[in-house]
Amino acid sequence: MQIVNNGVMPVAEPNGRGPAHALAVPEGGSLEFPYDVQFILVGQNLDVLQVRQTIDAMGDSTVVVGDESTIKVHIHVKDPGQPLTYGTTLGQVMDVVVENMQAQMEEIVGNHEAISFEDVNAESHSDVQPGQIAVVSVAPGTGLAQAFRSMGTAYVVNGGQTNNPSTEEILQAIEQLPTDRVIVLPNNKNIFLASEAARDLTEKEVVVVHTRSVPQGLSALLALQPDGDLESVASAMEIAAEQVSTGELTRATRTVTLDGVACEDGALIGLVDGRLCASDQEMDVVVEQMLEAMEIEDRELVSIYYGADKTEADAVELAGQIKQHNPDIEVEIIAGGQAHYFFILGVE
Questions:
Q1: Stated pTM of the model
Q2: What digits encode the pLDDT tens for the residues 99-123?
Q3: In this predicted model, what pLDDT tens digit does every residue of 228-263 receive, in sequence order?
Q4: How far apart are CA 65 and CA 75, in angstroms?
Q5: Ramachandran area for residue 12 (φ above 0: left; ψ -120 to 50: alpha; else beta)
Q6: What span, in angstroms and rounded, lies between the C-alpha atoms of 233 and 239?
Q7: Of 282, 348, 293, which Cα lies nearest the Cα of 321?
C-alpha cells in the first residue's frame, strides 16, 4: 500500500532498490539534506564501487546499484546539482527526479496541525453518487482521517481506543451520505457493536467489515469498488484487511503478565494484532520483538503512523532503525495524530 499527498512521506529508499540510512532531521525540524535526487547513469566501463563511494560522500540515504553499463543512483543532498554534475562526467544521465523533502515535510506538518475532522469531511458528499457504495471509517486522529479520505472513505468518524464513537455518531454518518449502500470500517474491535447497532437501525443496506486496526482499514480500502456488488466488495475488503499485521507501541499502565509477557508499570509495550508480545524500557528492543512477531522477513512494506506525542523526527529515527535491520523493506511515514499509541505499524 502506498499513500501519497496526505501526511505520507517515503523514508530511506522509496523504490526498494537497496539499503539506505534514515533522513537526518535536526531538532529544529530542518532536514540536513533536503533534496531527494534519483537518476540513471548510462555509460561504459562504469565502476559501481567508485561511483557509490563518491556519491555517498555528497549526502545521506545513498543507494547506488547496477553494473558497468547502467547504474541507478539515489541520494539525499544539500545541492541537487552536485550528483547530477558528477554523473555527466561519467556518461549520460537519464530519468532524473529531484524532490524538495523539506517543503513536503513542512506542508505535511502544517496540514496536520490545522486540520479537523470537520475539515476532512467537508466535501464528503461530492465523492459519492447515488447508488454507489460509500464507506464510513472510524479513525483516532486527524492525520489518519486524511489517510482514510485519500483512500476512498466518504466520511470519517472520530474515535478509537478509549474514545469509542456512539451508535448515534456512526448512524448519522451513514444517514447523511447520498447513497443507500454503505460499508462501515470500525478499525477497532471495541467499535464492532456500535457499528452493528447502527447498521440495524438504518433502512439503508449496510455491511460492517470487521477491521480491527487502522492499517487493516486502509488495506481494506484497496479493494473498494464503488459500483460493485455490495456483498462481494465487502468480502474482498475483508480479505484485503487480513493481509496486514498491526503493531502498536504504547506504555503499560500497570504491572501484569499477559500472553506470557511480563511487563512493569510504565514500561514500553508492543502489541501485535491485539496481543502483548514485547515489553522493555528501550524502544528499539520492543520494536525488534514486534517486527519479529509480525514476520518481517516475509514482508515488503512497513507503514509507520506516528501519534500525537511523537514528531516526524521520531518517526524518521524509527524508520532508520527498521531499515538498518531490514534493508530490503520499504518504509513509509504517516502523521497519524493518534492518542495513546506512540506508533502504529502496519506490515504487509
A1: 0.67
A2: 887 665 555 555 444 567 677 777 6
A3: 999 999 999 999 999 999 999 999 888 888 888 888
A4: 12
A5: left
A6: 10
A7: 282
